[in-house]
Amino acid sequence: TVAxxxxxxxxxxxxxxxxxxxxxxxxxxxxxxxxxxDASASKLEAFPGVEDLSRGYVEExxxxxxxxxxxxxxxxxxxxxxxxxxxxxRLTKVFIAPRGARTRLHRDNHGAHARLTVARGRKLxxxxxxxxxxxxxxxxxxxxxVSGRRDAAAPAPGSxxxxxxxxxxxxxxxxxxxxxxxxxxxxxPYVAVLGEGDTILVPKHWWHFAVSLExxxxxxxxxxxxxxxxxxxALQKSTLEAKLRALKDAGLLRGSIKxxxxxxxxxxxxxx
Length: 272
Fold this sequence. Notes:
- With about 270 residues, this protein is α+β, with helices and mostly antiparallel strands.
- Helix content is about 30%, strand content about 20%.
- It has a five-stranded antiparallel sheet with strand order 1-2-9-4-7.
C-alpha cells in the first residue's frame, strides 16, 4: 500500500548498507486511478504565470478526429472530452522517495515541458540546456556507455525515435564523472535545492537530474504551451495513426476518412 511505502521512505537509510537498493515510487498517477473524481485534478492544471494548453488542445484534436471518422454529434464531443480528461490526468504524477533516491539524468519525451513541486521534504535538482546534449553521452538505442557496456537503465534498441536518446548514463554527482565522461567537463549544470512548496519549471528538451535530500513527495506535471504545441500535434497524430492501424488490422475500419485533422486546432490561451 502507499501507506506502507511512506513508512519505508521515512525510515530508509541509504548509508546503512551499500547492498540495499533504494526503492522509489516514481510516476504514480492517482487521479487517473480515482473511481470517484472531484475537481482536484483539473485544479492541478492551473499554475500562476504558466500557460498549460494540454487538455483543451487534446479535446479539440480528438473532436476533429472523431468528426472525420464518425461525423459530428454529441457522442463524438463527449468522447473527445473524456479522452482529453484522461490524457490530462495521465500527465500529473506523484513521486514518493526516501532519502537518497535519484531520478537519473534525462529529458522528457514528446517535447513536453515539466513542472515539479516539492510538497514534502527537500530535493536537489541539476538541469542542463539542450545544447549540452552532445556532452552528456545520451543513449541512442544502439550504444550504451563509453565503456561499451549496456547500462541496466538504458533504453533497448528499437526504442521509438526521439525517446531512445532521452536518457544519459552520466551521474552528475559521481566523483569520477569527468573521468568517465570527459565531455561533461564542458557542460554547464544549473543547480537548485527545493524545499516544501518550491516549484521548478523544466522547459522542453532540458536535461534534469534529481536526488531526495530527505524523504520527499513531489507533484509533477508534463504540459504543452503555445511554445511547443507542434510537439503535441506530432504526438496526437502519431497516436491517432496507431489507432487507425489497429482498427484496420482488426477489420473494423472501412471506407475513407472524411477529413484528416492535418493541422493544429485553433485554441484560445487559458493560462493562469
